[in-house]
Design brief:
heterodimer, A: about 80 residues, alpha+beta, Alpha-Beta Plaits, five-stranded antiparallel sheet, about 30% strand, B: about 200 residues, alpha/beta, Translation Initiation Factor IF3, Hypothetical Protein Ychn, Chain: A, four-stranded mixed sheet, about 35% helix, elongated
């Protein structure tokens, strides 16, 4: 299953991508679908298997996260 | 002998037109004379001839006036059909996306490098896949095996998009052996894709 993170700023997305990729986690930057939020933001997509590690990296690096969603059948469901 | 008056033509048109004439030759071959006004066109016709096994004679008639006689021997004609234009992009409603750098826009390289990822993903999600995507200059880096955009480009290729990667550029960056999607192409193929596009998006 795919997990996506949204961020409050473009700088946060860039920092998140760089840190997650340097930890050898497969991550992809994609535009945020308008169903989640209107605008031109970007989100970071990773596999659910890597979520725990990614969460730790984002917390350690003080990278602010706006929201976390799981992608199921093309639907974005807030991850709790 | 067919004569092509290519005076005033800019490369690669003299070569392309010569190839078109050669493609019409019968199996026993033929001769085509190309009149050109610059040395580069002579060199390109000579190179094309050498690569195809044709005879080629260049004569300087006057200042900015050259005659290039290309002689195609028996059994050599078929090779011209598989000329550098690999697989002609179909005309029609085709969208061609030309990506000339590994980032999107100017201002911040860091931002541009993240934007291009979102852009490539987005075009891979278009309802109708682009007819072709061509990569040149630093854009070729997006097609490498360790590129973050590779999977999205491969997905487009699987949907039928022709992916062309500039061989000169891949060679320049010394990454030719790392290109992991599409076909290595030359300028003829890039021009062919653009010329046959209904519309071109330049990045």
């Amino acid at each position: 299953m795919e997990i996506v993170y949204t961020f409050p700023s473009t700088h946060a997305v860039i920092a998140a991508e760089q840190n997650v990729l340097s930890a050898k986690i497969k991550a992809k930057v994609r535009p945020i679908p308008t169903v989640i939020r209107a605008g031109c933001g970007l989100m970071l997509c990773i596999s659910l298997d890597d979520k725990a590690q990614a969460d730790k990296i984002l917390a350690d690096k003080n990278i602010p996260v706006d929201g976390v969603y799981s992608v199921q059948d093309g639907q974005y469901i807030p991850y709790v | 002998m067919t004569v092509i008056d290519a005076m005033g033509w800019v490369c690669p048109r003299p070569v392309i037109e010569a190839k078109k004439v050669i493609a019409t030759f019968p199996a026993e071959g033929g001769v085509v004379k190309v009149l050109v006004d610059n040395q580069i066109a002579c060199d390109n016709l000579s190179k094309m001839s050498a690569s195809k096994g044709y005879g080629c004679e260049v004569s300087k008639i006057a200042d900015r006036q050259y005659e290039v006689v290309v002689t195609v021997g028996e059994g050599k004609v078929e090779e011209s059909a598989s000329a550098p234009v690999v697989a002609s992009v179909q005309s029609g409603d085709g969208l061609v996306v030309a990506i000339s750098q590994n980032k999107m826009g100017h201002g911040s390289d860091e931002l541009g490098q993240i934007l291009i990822k979102g852009f490539i993903y987005s075009i891979s999600q278009l309802e109708v896949a682009p007819k072709a995507v061509v990569f040149f200059n630093s854009g070729v880096k997006l097609t490498l095996q360790d590129s973050n955009t590779l999977a999205d480009i491969q997905a487009m290729a699987e949907r039928g998009t022709i992916v062309r990667v500039c061989g000169t550029c891949a060679d320049y960056f010394k990454v030719k052996d790392q290109v992991a999607v599409g076909e290595i192409c030359n300028m003829y193929d890039i021009v062919d894709a653009m010329a046959n596009a209904a519309k071109v998006i330049n990045i």
